[in-house]
Amino acid sequence: MTPASGLGPLRILQRVLAARRGDPRAKEDIYHLRGALKFLAVFAATIALPGLLLSYYGLAGIAAQRDAAQAQVARDAELAADTLSTRIEAEFVAFENAALTRLKTGKSLHLRLNELSPAVRVVFRFDRQGTLAAPFVRAPPAASAARWRLSEAWSEAGAAELAGDYSAAAAAYAAFGKHTSLPAAKGDAAFARARSLLRAGDSRAAEAAFKDVERNYRAVRSVEGFRLGDLARYKLAELVVARDPQAGRSEFEKLIAGLLAEDWVIGEGGEAQVVKGALDNLEALGGDVERLRRDRETADDRQTQLYWAGALQGELEGLGAKGRLLPQDVGKFYYVSTPGAVWARTWTASDLYYVALDSQQLLHRLRGLAFTATAPGSDVAVAVSETDDPPIPDTRVRRSLSRAPQWSIVAYARNPAELAARQAGEVRRGLGNVLLAVGMIVVGTFLSAGLVRRELHSARVKSEFAANVSHELRSPITQIRLKAEALQLGLAESPEARARHYEVIVREAERLSRMVDNMLDFAAIERGVKRYDLRPGDLSVTVQNVVETARLAMETRSMTIEETYPDDLPAVWHDADAVAQVVVNLLSNAAKYGREASWIGVRVVNADDEVRVEVSDRGIGVRPQELGHIFEQYYRSNDLLARGQKGTGIGLTIVKYIMEAHGGSVSVRSTLGVGTTFVLHFPITGPIPTDRPGA
Ligand code: ADP
């Protein structure tokens, strides 16, 4: 048998060309190859191609899945932004409805701010001329800067006051007042003079001077923003307290009541200060605690409102310039932002209202809404962000609020790193599955290719075996027929010639029967049904009998068989027929592959733990690289000398099986061109071999 022949493209081409030339072996190869190709085609159509298609769609699916995940985040972000938008809208609408209801029912927005919205801080009402309704008046044009205080005369008066010379200071202020024509400067000087007189200790003159200020400069505002009349009354009340606390207290009470009943001016804070100072005095004098608290609250509230109203001034002037200070879009709300406040503006039938929502509180409230606009486990979150806030990473949606454009709704990925990692993990898993599938297909392809290759080889080997068997059978049959016919026709006349013919017939018949035995045994071994009848016995006797028979059979080839037997041999468990078959096979090989007129050595050796039977020849030998193969079934050497001999490649296989069935083994030593020794190892120690199957 030939060793495994390759399936490379070059070799295939070679075989195709050889088949074209009519080489029967090549034709057979091509036949086998066609079978293999059919198998591969079926494999490709049913496994490889669908597998690759599945992998392709798997990869496409992974990409689609990743895109879908991104799209889902985008959708979630839109949804979150929508939800928050709706909630903010609802919040404003609720506020507007409540405000309108209050305006329609004539309830004061101003006094019940907290019911409307915790963020509402102040409400202003203007009439259709744009005049701010009570308790405020719009600020008159800004008072001219108090330039007189930079004059030399004023400075001298001030210096005298600082030096403690109050009488001189009072005289200097009086002189300054006489010379100036500005009413504000006159008032300023009159008040400064009254104060200096008081400090000089002349309270009578001071009282007269303060009364003068109160009479003549009542509405004049000091540089610090106080009305001189209010300051003078305050000082007069203090003077009264010094004389008569009871009377003084009622002076302060009158001062406070008067101020709280008046309109205050946007942008001016003096009135509140005076009220608070007067309240402090009353407290010291032991006034009505409850009333003091109420008045102080009112003053505080007004001060706050004056602060906010100052911020609105620009907006109002803008509206006035556009001629929009007339009722329009009654009941609709418009929003305008000033630093610190978002103003809701609306017209009733006759009046324009401004309601201030404190920016910080409003923002806080809207952010509270944002907090619950998404589920806690969601990949996206939504927030209300100020224009100058640092940008939120991985922002997906940004919408500015229609009512306060300085704020935006921002929807963003809650944890971009985790999101990216999760998506990458999904992609990795998908890729892993696809790679696994592809890997399995590749491995499957290789395994299948190996399988096909082995099947191809075994098909070749078997067909070669069949050819060898028929060849082997034909030659003894031909010999027997020829010799028998010769005898029948009386062609062999001499008794010697007849005897030779008979001898050939017997020898060839024996060869035939040996071959048939071998093949039947081989078939039985292969099927696993061969049984051996092991009994203890003398191995030397068994071997000797075989050699005797063989010597007769091979006489014509004039072989010398040299036998060596030990004197004492322990009994060896063996099947005498099977061992005979083994030795015959070895002798027949030694005769076949030994050279003409050669020598065969048969030696039975008693080793310590085994009995060895050695069959040696001085023949062609076996190449070292083939020593490992010669026991394989159907294996025949490629060596030309060996190929010259007929054979089927199963003789040594049977030897190996039988020896294994005896619990022993067979080994070989060989030198190319020198000779070969096969050694049968029979165990004599260890468990007695039982009836074992041959394969
Ligand atoms: P075959 O029918 O070919 O003899 P075997 O199984 O008996 O089959 O032997 C296998 C191969 O081992 C042979 O083809 C031959 O090449 C080699 N071989 C066996 N015995 C010998 C030997 N005594 N000397 C050289 N080669 C041998």
Question: Can you put this structure into words, describing what you see?
Answer:
The structure is a single chain. With 695 residues, the chain is of the alpha+beta class. Among the domains are: 174 residues, Serine Threonine Protein Phosphatase 5, Tetratricopeptide repeat (Alpha Horseshoe); 153 residues, Heat Shock Protein 90. The chain has 18 helices and 16 strands. The chain is rod-shaped and about 190 Å long. It binds adenosine-5'-diphosphate. Adenosine-5'-diphosphate binds next to helix 16 and helix 18. The site of adenosine-5'-diphosphate (ADP) has 21 residues, from helix 16 and helix 18.
In the CATH scheme, the class of the domain at 144-317 would be: Mainly Alpha
Tally the helices: what do you get? 18
Number of distinct beta strands: 16
Shape: rod-shaped
Largest sheet: 5 strands, mixed
Instruction: List the ions, cofactors and other small molecules found in this model.
Output: adenosine-5'-diphosphate
Q: Which architecture of the domain at 144-317 would the CATH scheme give at its second level?
A: Alpha Horseshoe
The residue ranges in which pLDDT falls below 50 over 5 or more consecutive positions are 1-5, 111-116
Query: What topology, given as strand order, has the largest sheet?
Result: 11-13-14-16-15
* CATH-defined superfamily of the domain at 144-317: Tetratricopeptide repeat domain
Could you tell me how far the N terminus lies from the C terminus, measured between alpha carbons in angstroms?
21 Å
Beta-strand content bin: 5-15%
Q: The CATH topology of the domain at 144-317, please?
A: Serine Threonine Protein Phosphatase 5, Tetratricopeptide repeat
The oligomeric status of these chains comes to single chain
Structural class: alpha+beta
Q: Please, what is the average pLDDT?
A: 84
- Helical residue percent band: 55-70%
